Amino acid sequence: MIRAFVDANILFSAAWSEASGINRLWDQPDIQLVTSIYALAEAQQNILLKRPNSLVHLNRLMLNVQISALTTILRRDYGLPENDIPIINTAIAADCSVLLTGDMRHFGHLINDASIGISVMTVSMFFASLINEQQEE
Description:
42% helix
């Protein structure tokens, strides 16, 4: 079972459009989606501001997402802005193997950085890695 932390922008994008390919994350049988109270609150706030009708879909999606209140203290900030540190803290503390985000401006430098103990990926990178794993089997 893969534990995948979903950042606020992933929740927002999935809720924005039910036809979005991101919604396929919820169809994967061997993936446990995890988020934080912090990320969920950010996604809810942005949905309410930009597309309030999508809040119903976000609430439906959240029925299959574990909300973690765990956190850990990082030894360094990994070059992240202060508002993104709770995201990586919770992902690591919740024992996720991957952090899924669309925020390449802030998290992009952590892609392929094995030193942090969690893989940072976009959703498309994650799906590509799943396909590669299936082909190797």
